[in-house]
Design goal:
Layout (H helix, E strand, L loop, with lengths): L1 E6 L2 H11 L6 E6 L4 H6 L2 E4 L5 H11 L3 E4 L2 H5 L2 H7 L4 E2 L7 H4 L1 H10 L8 E5 L6 H15 L4 E5 L8 E3 L7 H15 L1 E6 L4 E10 L2 E4 L4 E2 L2 E3 L3 E4 L4 E4 L10 H22 L4 E11 L2 E8 L6 H5 L7 H10 L13 E9 L12 E2 L9 E5 L2 E3 L5 E3 L5 E7 L2 H13 L5 E2 L7 H16 L1
Helix pairs in contact: 8-9
The structure holds adenosine monophosphate (AMP) and glycine.
């Protein structure tokens, strides 16, 4: 059994580790963006390369002759790597380009849900460039929509992949109607379309599912923390850390909230099948927000979350390789998937100046000889030099995951391990703490009581 894995972060390390635990003992050949010390320990070969160079990745895959490929990051999936590999006869766990539009195009995702009557979107409108002469009218329409329909509480979304940086919110990044209209016009000039939607108030969470066509099997729900600093302050990042609870739900969700999110993932998989006339095969990631009267969709991704994968994959007790095979051949079923009933807390170690600067790039960090048994360590944007030193890149460095019977114990394990890492690094001490979780529970109580 040979698997070709394309990876750019700690998520890929967690995927490799879960694949390697399979009784099928697969040989993993990895294409990575850095000389990842974690991947090196697991994979038979690690090829450091530009994973966006389709021809180079395909050439490598052809020489590997894998049973299947697993593509972890969004950019190569969005650019159509799966289409290329499948045309060479290599089946993939990841969707083809037109199915991946559920992530790569915000307007596709919203319009798909609207067309298929999936009532989970905030109030929204897609504005499209028609002709140069119409630009002034478009700006007038946008201004009117922001002011009179959304009453100044809006979100403007760039309609293509932009590393999580294309979304701007009123009251945070855009302080006036003028600023909102200007950013919307900038989006239109750059990619032809913009999505503008109502700004929702609530608590966000992710529900990822294994998907093969219309068969959808959920993983435990996870909550991510996007802001760089404690107390959800500072600039947005790719995700500073996450937690999941032993029962598969989260402390601020009702049973009905989770069931609704699960149903929405099912409906979206079915809508994709109807719309694209072929099955989505891979991981569908629903980004949700719990609001006063249920849940709404913030976004969809067509891959594992990073760090969400780091929470769920260490808990997977069944054969991950078999799950991948069943996704490909259409035999996925719930009995192939079982997660351990444990809580997890993941805290990302990042360079000190992340995400604004890359000042620490190339500097050394020192890890303890060993970590506690209930801690997992997943390497992201770090590389190993010839002397075995671990050097920082510019992005998120190492995902540290604590596992315990409850969130409190998992948090203590993650926090203790993070404190042992020496170097010019940063992490969020508040992720998964009782205090931080209580704030979310209180907010949901307040919203539901209104
Ligand atoms: P996205 O890339 O669509 O996930 O958006 C990035 C971040 O913007 C999300 O994680 C949310 O925090 C925020 N966001 C996006 N859409 C909305 C919305 N309609 N209401 C409130 N916040 C939003
Ligand atoms: N953790 C957010 C993401 O993977 O998109």
């Amino acid at each position: 059994m040979r698997i070709f894995l394309v990876s750019n972060s700690a998520r890929g390390h967690a995927i490799a580790e879960a694949l390697a635990r399979s009784p099928q003992k697969p040989e993993i050949i990895a294409a990575c963006t850095v000389n990842d010390p974690g991947m090196k320990k697991i994979a038979k070969e690690v090829h450091v390369m530009d994973i966006m160079s389709m021809s180079k990745v395909c050439q490598l895959a052809r020489s590997v002759k894998p049973d299947f490929a697993f593509i972890a990051p969004d950019d190569p999936i969005g650019a159509g790597l799966v289409d290329r590999l499948e045309s060479e006869g290599i089946p993939c766990v990841a969707p083809r380009k037109h199915l991946a539009r559920i992530e790569s195009s915000k307007s596709f995702a919203r319009e798909l849900m609207k067309k298929h009557k999936i009532d989970a979107s905030p109030k929204f409108r897609t504005f499209e460039f028609t002709s140069k002469d119409e630009l002034t009218h478009l700006e007038i329409d946008i201004r009117a929509y922001l002011e009179h329909e959304l009453h100044g509480h809006y979100v403007v979304k760039y309609d293509a992949l932009k590393g999580g940086k294309g979304v701007k919110l009123s009251g945070e990044h855009l302080l006036t109607i003028d600023a909102g209209a200007r950013y919307a016009m900038e989006c239109i000039e750059q990619c032809g379309t913009v999505v503008i939607e109502e700004k929702l108030i609530g608590v966000e969470f992710s529900l990822m599912s294994f998907v093969s066509g219309t068969t959808v099997v959920d993983m435990p729900a996870v909550q991510d923390h996007k802001r760089a600093h404690n107390g959800d302050t500072g600039p947005n990042t790719g995700g500073m850390g996450t937690y999941s609870d032993a029962g598969g739900s989260l402390p601020f969700l009702t049973e009905k909230d989770l069931a609704e999110a699960s149903e929405i993932n099912r409906s979206v998989a079915k809508a994709l099948m109807d719309e694209c006339v072929e099955p989505f095969k891979g991981i569908l990631y629903g980004g949700f927000i719990a609001v006063a009267d249920g849940v709404k969709v913030i976004e969809y991704n067509a891959r594992f979350g990073d760090p969400e994968a780091l929470n769920v994959l260490p808990l997977l007790e069944t054969d991950f390789v078999k799950i991948c095979q069943s996704i490909i051949d259409g035999t996925l079923s719930p009995d192939l998937v079982r997660f351990g009933k444990k809580a997890t807390v993941c805290k990302y170690i990042t360079p000190k100046s992340y995400p604004e600067h890359k000042d620490e790039k190339g500097q050394k960090i020192i890890l303890p000889e060993r970590f506690a048994d209930n801690v997992r360590v997943y390497f992201g944007d770090v590389s190993e030099d010839q002397n075995g030193n671990i050097l920082l890149g510019g992005s998120r460095s190492i995902g540290i995951v604590g596992i315990g019977d409850n969130i409190e114990l998992a948090e203590q394990a993650a926090q203790g391990a993070c404190e042992k890492i020496a170097g010019p690094v940063h992490f969020r001490a508040d992720i998964g703490t009782l205090d931080s979780i209580q704030k979310r529970v209180d907010l949901m109580h307040k919203l539901r009581a209104r």
